[in-house]
Amino acid sequence: MTSAGSSPRLQVASSPHVAAKENVTHIMLWVVAALTPATIWAVWNMKMVAIVLLGSCIGSTLATEWIWNRIARRAQTLWDGSALVTGLLLALALPPRTPWWMAVIGGVVAIGLAKMLFGGLGWNLFNPALVGRAFLSISWMGVLADVRPFPGGWFNALSVPGVGDLDAITGATRLAIAAADRAADGAYGVDLAEYYRPLLLRNLEGSFGEISGALLLLGGFVLIAKGIIDWRIPAGYITTVGLLSWAFGSDPIFNVLAGGVLLGAFYMATDYVTSPMTRAGRLVFGCGCGLFNVVGRFFGPMPESTTFAILFMNGLVPLIDKGFAPRTFGWVSRRG
Amino acid sequence: MSQHLGAPCLPTVEKGDHVRRGQVVGDVDAFVSAPVHSPVEGEVSEIVEVLSISGTRVNAVRIAPEPDQDVREHERITADAEVDVVRLAGVVGLGGAAFPTSVKLIPPRDKPVGTVILNGCECEPYLTCDHRVMVEQPERVVAGGHAIRRIVGAQGLVIGVEDNKPEAAEALRPHLGSDVELLILPTRYPQGAEKQLIWAVLGKEVAHGELPAAAGALVHNVSTAVAVADALDKGKPLVERVVTVTGNVARPGNYLTLLGTPVSALIKAAGGIVGKPGRVIAGGPMTGVALADLDVPVVKGTSGVVVLEEGETAPAVMNDQPCIRCGRCSDACPMMLQPFAIGIYANRSDWDGSERYHALDCIECGCCSYVCPTRRPLVQLIRQAKHVLLERGSHL
Ligand code: SF4
Ligand code: SF4
């Protein structure tokens, strides 16, 4: 044997010795990228009010994450990008008339209550952005129901009506009109098909993210093609919404396009942490979201039931995971 | 002296002895074992304890080779039964696990082998040694397959080759004959793993805790088949193997290497390391062992030497990044386990929990750690769990 040469300094570690390039930050940035077209389109149409809302949501989620980590003396997790995604999703789920301070509260609740209190990314049971939105909609029901288009302009964002005025306003979204129409057995004579175009291309009612269904779909398909999200969740979700609303005698396409279903199906329900781990489980989860979305919409107190449908299914995830655990190779029946 | 899975050998020569090529220098009287032969002619300079390629200390016979010898000449192995020839020739599985081949050639009586599968799916990415063997010695591969089929009394013989190796398939085709099937499989890691290959070829799952024989199948690596054929036809003991040397070396390729050659000499033969090495791995990057010392000798199970550059490697330290429940690890796991769950339980030292999630079925292929976006050290955690579970007597 040759005499021991001077071996170079080598690193010793456990296998495997190589890893895929993809990390959490990449995944989160892909989600942000997928939402960017819709976000830009919203800013273009609503100008300053969009910027203020985005700023308050993202600013407050990032700040909450940073401060929490400092106080709890945990490693800083700001750079994993998950707080950024939460802030962006929260903003897109709020109507443009939401006052900035309310958006800030939503952000603090989303990160502080729904995520960090549970132990940070990975440990939370409920989707943080949706918890933030749910908190606001319960606390200030009138505000989040007010989804009238905001007069777009660069400088009128600061003159957003105060909460006091809001009680007087009855926001009538297309969804609410549709609900009323359905309740009155078509007496209003609304042709919901007329709304397809605006809902797909340029819709100033509802939450921010509903500005354009087409752009949301585009981003969603990119995420699926990139393998970031599993198609089973949005597919199960949307199919169920379409079929059920058709069964209930409503227009399936309208119901899929309205009320934040697309935002929920592609971007909220697909959150890794709060959705099931297995492929079959994800399909069931998606269908469940769709089911409760439609049931809430047609029979619940509020037509906009997307938030609560997904949160409810989030709560069922541990059960779904148990029920749809994969059968280990070589095990004929699941034991133990 | 410990080149295979099973009982280590004891030296059968002493310091100062003259040994011939192919002479037995280590053996042990155990069923699961294989003798070790001298790859060169020379004089035993010492019997020492050395660092092995897997990081343990083992007994070794150091031989000073005589200059200018023809390494193609060797002692001939003879025995009456073919199985004995294979054992005496020291043949072990060359895919990496190094399980003594003769043991696998004696199937349990109540579970006859229906099909012999020759594994031409490289056991790891980066490695190409099996490919080379198939391209250069296709007739020996087929001959070895026939011999194995004859010994175990099986009917079928299937050679499974992944579709990224059309050259190998083309080389094999003219030698097949009517009773050998060549199956082209989609390229997928870890198809080279025994149970996965049986599933891909026969569509049968080997049940938990069972040997492949339970599915009526016997899997041998193509390189092993060549070694079997060489032992039977030429009486050749296993004293050399094809090793893939790749990564950051000047001349990556496959090298026919005498067993016992130091890894450092092999790297030198491949033109030396280029750039700043991060890790040198014996075996493949997914399951191999990172070497601390490059003077360790090549053994029968050394299928490759991969030099990875600094920065090219997975993180070395255990991180405590959380699981974000993305499900990638479960989707990737060939055993259909839920690695994240085993990892979480193992992290909490909840061994019952990890057993419930079938930690013991893990084949340590490394897929889960590879795909995890938070780089959780899943394989390490699962290994820990398996270790504890086996210690306390849980059974596969
Ligand atoms: S190493 Fe990971 S992917 Fe491979 S068998 Fe084990 S748990 Fe599954
Ligand atoms: S790949 Fe990693 S982050 Fe994803 S589920 Fe598995 S352990 Fe968790």
Fill in the keyword field for this structure.
heterodimer, A: 336 residues, mainly alpha, 15 helices, 57% helix, 0% strand, globular, disordered N terminus, B: 396 residues, alpha/beta, OB fold (Dihydrolipoamide Acetyltransferase, E2P), Rossmann fold, Ubiquitin-like (UB roll), 4 domains, five-stranded mixed β-sheet, four-stranded parallel β-sheet, binds iron/sulfur cluster
Give an account of the 3D structure.
The complex is a heterodimer of chains A (336) and B (396). Chain A has helices at residues 24-46, 48-71, 82-93, 100-113, 128-139, 141-145, 163-166, 174-183, 196-201, 213-225, 232-247, 252-257, 261-268, 279-299, 306-323. With 336 residues, chain A is mostly helical. Chain A has a domain at 198-318. Chain A is globular and about 75 Å long. By secondary structure, chain B is α/β, with parallel strands linked by helices. Chain B folds into 4 domains: 10-65, RNA polymerase II/Efflux pump adaptor protein, barrel-sandwich hybrid domain (OB fold (Dihydrolipoamide Acetyltransferase, E2P)); 82-234, 3-Layer(aba) Sandwich (Rossmann fold), CATH 3.40.50; 240-312, Ubiquitin-like (UB roll) (Roll), CATH 3.10.20.600; 328-391, no CATH class. Chain B contains 13 helices and 15 strands. In chain B, the strands form 4 sheets. In chain B, strands 12-11-15-13-14 form a 5-stranded mixed sheet, with helices on both faces. In chain B, strands 9-8-7-10 form a 4-stranded parallel sheet, sandwiched between helices. In chain B, a hairpin with a 5-residue loop joins strand 5 (42-51) and strand 6 (57-65). In chain B, helix 3 (129-136) runs parallel beside helix 5 (166-172), helix 4 crosses helix 7 and helix 10 packs across helix 13 (378-391). Chain B starts with 9 loop residues before the first strand and ends in a 5-residue tail after the last helix. The interface between A and B is large, with 47 and 72 residues.
